[in-house]
Amino acid sequence: MSEPNVITVAAVVFRDDAGRMLTVRKNGTASFMLPGGKLEPGESAADAAVREVAEELGVRLLVEELTLLGEFEADAANEPGHLVRSTVFTWAGKVTPDAAAEIAELRWASLTEITDGADFAPLTREYVVPALQPA
């Protein structure tokens, strides 16, 4: 059971040949974030990530193709007073995504654009991008 005001999600990082990261903006929101979403009851983070990416982007992944980047917690971008706790995976292949389901817009952005951009979700900007930087 989730703690009050904590939204538990799973997400996937996709990169293109230029190193940009795929971000999405959901209908009725202003912030760009990683593709992914809330876990269903009894669903693993990896299974949720695969399901959400298929629903949102039309991209079919296999759980075995995901690599765990980490688990992060930050202020929720679109739900004031809530925290989002995300299990984030990376995927090494190339994708041609299509905005579907609740996705209003897709945006490929450099890590610098994300770090410097107020229109990116705090979790993506403050935790995921630093985790992707070489040590």
Descriptive overview:
- Strands 3-1-5-4 form a four-stranded mixed β-sheet, sandwiched between helices.
- It has a single domain (6-132), classed as Nucleoside Triphosphate Pyrophosphohydrolase (Alpha-Beta Complex), CATH 3.90.79.
- It has helices at 45-57, 111-116, 122-132, and strands at 6-13, 21-26, 36-38, 66-75, 83-91, 103-109.
- It is an alpha+beta fold.
- The longest helix is centred in the middle third of the chain and has 13 residues, at 45-57.
- The protein contains three helices and six strands.
- The protein is globular, with a radius of gyration of 14 Å.
- The mean pLDDT is 94.
- Keywords: Hydrolase.
- InterPro entries: Nudix_hydrolase, NUDIX_hydrolase-like_dom_sf, NUDIX_hydrolase_CS, NUDIX_hydrolase_dom.
Primary descriptors:
alpha+beta, 135 residues, hydrolase, 3 helices, globular, Nucleoside Triphosphate Pyrophosphohydrolase, four-stranded mixed beta sheet
SSE inventory with pairings:
Layout: E1 6-13, E2 21-26, E3 36-38, H1 45-57, E4 66-75, E5 83-91, E6 103-109, H2 111-116, H3 122-132
Q: Structural class of the helices, strands and pairings?
A: alpha+beta
Low-confidence stretches: none
Basic shape:
globular
Overall average residue pLDDT: 94
Spatial sequence of strands, sheet with the most strands? 3-1-5-4
Number of distinct helices: 3
| Count of all domains | 1
Quick structural overview:
22% of the residues lie in helices and 32% in strands.
